[in-house]
Amino acid sequence: MPDQDPRPDSSADILARIDTSTPHSARFWNYFVGGKDNYAKDRELGDHIKEIFPGLVDVARLSRHFLGRAVRHLAGEQGIRQFLDIGTGLPTADNTHEVAQRTAPECRIVYVDNDPLVLAHARALLTSTPEGETAYIDADLYDPEAILRTAAKTLDLSKPVALMILNTLGHVADYGQARDLVGRLMAGLPAGSHLVVSDSTATSEGMIAASDAYNESDAIPYYVRGVEEIGGFFDGLELVEPGVVPVTRWRPESADDPMPVDAYGAVARKP
Fold it and tell me: In a designed cystine with 122, which of 8, 20, 43, 160 is the match (CB 3.0 to 4.6 A)?
């Protein structure tokens, strides 16, 4: 049998969509967490932001730790076996499927992103235990119903799903629209489903300055919000203790992540 193409979609269209001349949020974040899937423009912007606000590196790194703790809680303590991860970004260590299937091998995970570089690397994401399944959707956050329709090919939407939207909603400029998108996604999931959200927050002058500098670049803007606005994404849901807190203070498993950072998150259950 001939070797498979290493790309999940080898069309020229996918490759043509990759623009290395301007910074991109997924590659920028990848640089901040120590990844190698980034380009000169991403690193230039990253280094500029580090000069303004070195703490953003901690936000990137410690937000990944929050993802791991949230997934372990959902798969381990809540018995969730299905995950819908929107705004996947580029694969690094301990992606959602790896954490979930390490806890429960039968977990099924659907990743959603519309970045062509993420699509080109999707084969790295499309690994799974024999008992579970992992899939990738090239789709847009702004079309929740299409996401749900396609996710239903892998997930059973009559059973609880964990909806993960990490470091993504800040790209939606209008807060009301961001809340509407979350609401429409959760409306398509049954009772017992959970929502996990984290985003950078306007909780220090340094983070606000970093956000302003980022938005002055050619990258897609990212808007930091107040803590109360992050909390608004969970309206109508039952917050899991300790509620909306700095990501480092959401159920820390050790003393490694005690410091507060300018990123808040929470986990909540749909009643």
Answer: 8
